Amino acid sequence: MDIRTYNREVQVLIGDIQSNRGKDAAALLSASDKLLAYGNGMKDDALVGYAYFSKGETYYLLNDASNFYSQMLNSLVPLENAGEWEYVAKANNMLGIASLNRGNAPFALDYYIKAISICEDYSLPDMEWVIHLNLGSLYLNIEEYQKSISHTEIAYRYILAHKDMSDYVENLTFGLLGIGRAYLKLGQESKFLEIEKKLRVECMPYLNDLEKIVIYCYFVRVHDAMNEKEARDYWIEKVNENTSTRMPIMDVFDDFYDYLEMLLATDKYDDFFKSYSVLDELTKRTSIKNLERKLLTLKIRYYRRVGQIEEYKIASVLFFELSEFMERENRLMVSNMLVMRNSYMELTQINKKVEEQNTFLQKRSETDPLTGMYNRLKLNEYSEEAFDRAFAHKRNIAVEILDIDYFKQFNDNYGHQAGDDCIRFIADKLIELSQDESIFCARYGGDEFVIIYEGLTKDEVLAKANLLRDRIYDEAMEHKFSLSDSRVTISQGICYGLLDGETSYYEYLQGADKMLYEVKQESRNNIKLLEKEK
């Protein structure tokens, strides 16, 4: 929204909203109401949507669930009508967070998929990685650990590529911890130890003691999993020293919950209650009953373990009361959502997407909309499985990354529609190639594609790669703006080898990318292969 197009009165109101965000809720709500009245009078969807969004965001910070849902849902249609897609994505992301915090994972997934679709359709990478990070948390909560890793790694790679972002180290920490917690649940020792090392080297030197608290919780669990009791107890003491009521509860809850579960399982009851009491106080401040109930389950399990029957009964009654409250809150969420959907679902394409069957939603999240190929999310999931298979069966594996030579010149001169046609042309050839069960293909982004070859010899991989290059060349799609040929060509980099158990897909991808870079430097329409040492 370009506020420069509005008069001075509107600019002042928007300035008041922005300056009071997170500071003075009453002043922000007052300015939003005035902007809402002005926007309704002028029939300006952008102002109406922004006013509702700002009110919803404020109620979210105030933990006022009822007003949050009604205001944020009210913001969606005017924001969509005005084409303010970044705010639409933000609104759906916040609705997803709130739904998950209140114990409704299906609603949260619904909102996140909506937000991802918007980011993909309208090229919002600065927002998309945040949603992938939140999807990682959702899947971790419902014990879909591989899906959690796939989403979190998308966010993690974005963070690594944007070291100039504000809060870089904090975001890096969240990404690493999300991946590490999933690997701990899966019992993949080499992986969670690798994450521990990265946290020590890349994050801890740049964080204060309070910010390190979630890392300490992770270290405790790592050393407990390794049966290193002395090291585990050292980090437990670090947690005890730094646990504070100043902790941002929403940022630390999941990490502390896993930590408390471990203390309970290992009979570390004194340490359990030191952290539990602080987390309990912080959770009650949020008024989020699902978090209170989740935490209470740990206390109930403790009372049962030590045979404190009366305390167990009292805590169980409280658990029942919290569950009743949550049921009422969820009915409110459903009611608000259905009212808005029934009123407006015919107005926008995005709302129609949400009403499709769950199978469609899953396929949509894995498929590139331009080409119909698998996208980076599916590539992430598949690569984990492929590398596990290759290691288990002692089979060769190769990763190829390819791109279209001088695609920018093609796109700039022939136009974006022709550029899309060119990408689809390459994708069609890759889809034909992937009919072979040993070959998986996905669009990586832009004009880049990734191929995974399983169980083929080096000569077979090179033969397949050459066949693909020749088929594309023989089609003779015109590219008179190329600096190397008069037709569309591709360059290919491949990393090939036999896994040793420590080598990851991302190392192979980096190796292939290095080969692609060398091809670009040396000549066009070529293939270069790096063979990993065995």
Description:
Among the domains are: 1-123 and 323-357, Tetratricopeptide repeat domain (Serine Threonine Protein Phosphatase 5, Tetratricopeptide repeat, Alpha Horseshoe), CATH 1.25.40; 367-531, Alpha-Beta Plaits. 70% of the residues lie in helices and 7% in strands. It is of the alpha+beta class and 534 residues long. A five-stranded mixed sheet has the order 2-3-1-4-5, sandwiched between helices. Residues 338-352 and 354-361 have low confidence and may be disordered. It is built from 23 helices and five strands.
Task: Write the SSE topology.
Elements: H1 8-20, H2 25-42, H3 45-61, H4 65-81, H5 85-101, H6 105-121, H7 125-141, H8 145-160, H9 168-186, H10 189-203, H11 213-225, H12 229-242, H13 249-265, H14 269-286, H15 289-306, H16 309-344, H17 349-354, H18 358-366, H19 376-392, E1 396-404, H20 407-414, H21 416-433, E2 439-445, E3 448-454, H22 458-475, E4 490-498, H23 505-522, E5 527-531
Parallel strand pairs: 4-5
Antiparallel strand pairs: 1-3, 1-4, 2-3
Key terms:
Alpha-Beta Plaits; Serine Threonine Protein Phosphatase 5, Tetratricopeptide repeat; globular; 534 residues; five-stranded mixed β-sheet; 5 strands; alpha+beta
CATH topology of the domain at 367-531: Alpha-Beta Plaits
Widest beta sheet: strand line-up:
2-3-1-4-5
Report the sheet with the most strands, covering strand number, pairing sense and barrel closure.
Answer: 5 strands, mixed
What structural class should be given to the helix and strand makeup? alpha+beta
Q: In percent, how much strand structure appears in the residues?
A: 5-15%
Integer-rounded radius of gyration:
26 Å
Kindly, what is the distance between the CA atoms of the first and last residues, rounded to a whole number of angstroms? 56 Å
Under the CATH scheme, the architecture of the domain at 367-531 is 2-Layer Sandwich
Number of DSSP-assigned strands: 5
Oligomeric organization of the protein chains: single chain
Flag low-confidence runs.
338-352, 354-361
- Give the overall silhouette: globular
How many distinct helices? 23
CATH superfamily of the domain at 367-531: Reverse transcriptase/Diguanylate cyclase domain
Helix coverage percent: over 70%
**Run of helices and strands:** HHHHHHHHHHHHHHHHHHHEHHEEHEHE
